[in-house]
Amino acid sequence: MALSGPRLAPLSGAAAQLVVLCHGYGADGNDLIGLAPHWQRFLPGAAFVAPHAPVLCPGAGRQWFPISRLDPDEMHTGVMGASGLLEAFLKEELARLALPPDRLALVGFSQGTMMALHVGLCGALRPAAIVGFSGLLTASLPPLQGAVPVLLVHGDADTVIPPGALFVTAAALGAAGLGVQWHLVAGLGHGIDAAGIEIAGRFLALALGGKLRTGGEVCCALR
């Protein structure tokens, strides 16, 4: 099975970067591609693509893997099972645009954050940056060399994935040697707001420009 989804081309010229957006449970790629126009002012040379997850949900939308409960072992098994398809898609997109992995950024929301963190940190490709909205890391990581800068954004009123997951994930990533920035959004539930979009856009521009530390620091993101 090959993944596909909506795209947004660079504002002008050939793509200089690639941003891949991984949606959450019950949505599809159309849910996150709407972030791309907001980030074009930070990344005018970037191509954006939001692949549809491979599995239909029982009701509506799609899923990267089934979830019956927020159990780390169950979720990690699902992430492992779906990671091959996403990694193959990333390789195909990079080859299509003639870009190396250090021109790639991964963005995820909820279940898509689980996928982005696992594929970006444990797979064969090392992207320039990972942004995770309202998600978590499904398993601990070994110490990483040449680590990837990560931004985590979470609402403090999230009732789907508790906001404490932000700090557990940030601590685990920091312990593995990654540079992590985080932002807790007051009053936000399980979603993405304008502040998070702005912070993420600036973070992606700095990371894809090679201007962020890749390891050794966990800190609050500055607006």
Question: What does this molecule look like?
Answer:
- The chain is of the alpha/beta class.
- The protein has 6 helices and 10 strands; from the N terminus they run E-E-H-H-E-E-E-H-E-H-E-E-H-E-H-E.
- It has a single domain (7-220), classed as Alpha/Beta hydrolase fold, catalytic domain (Rossmann fold), CATH 3.40.50.
- 33% of the residues lie in helices and 19% in strands.
- Strands 1-3-2-6-7-8-9-10 form an 8-stranded mixed beta sheet, with helices on both faces.
- The longest helix has 26 residues, at 72-97.
- It is globular.
- The mean pLDDT is 94.
Mean pLDDT: 94
> Over the alpha carbons, how many angstroms does the gyration radius reach?
16 Å
CATH second-level architecture? 3-Layer(aba) Sandwich
Distance between the termini: 40 Å
Distinctive features:
223 residues; alpha/beta; Rossmann fold; eight-stranded mixed β-sheet; 19% strand
Q: Layout of SSEs?
A:
Layout (H helix, E strand, L loop, with lengths): L6 E2 L8 E6 L6 H4 L3 H4 L6 E4 L5 E2 L5 E2 L8 H26 L6 E6 L1 H12 L6 E5 L16 E6 L8 H12 L4 E6 L8 H15 L9 E3 L3
Helix pairs in contact: 3-4
Provide a compact summary of the structure.
This protein has helices spanning 29-32, 36-39, 72-97, 111-122, 164-175, 194-208, and strands at residues 7-8, 17-22, 46-49, 55-56, 62-63, 104-109, 129-133, 150-155, 180-185, 218-220.
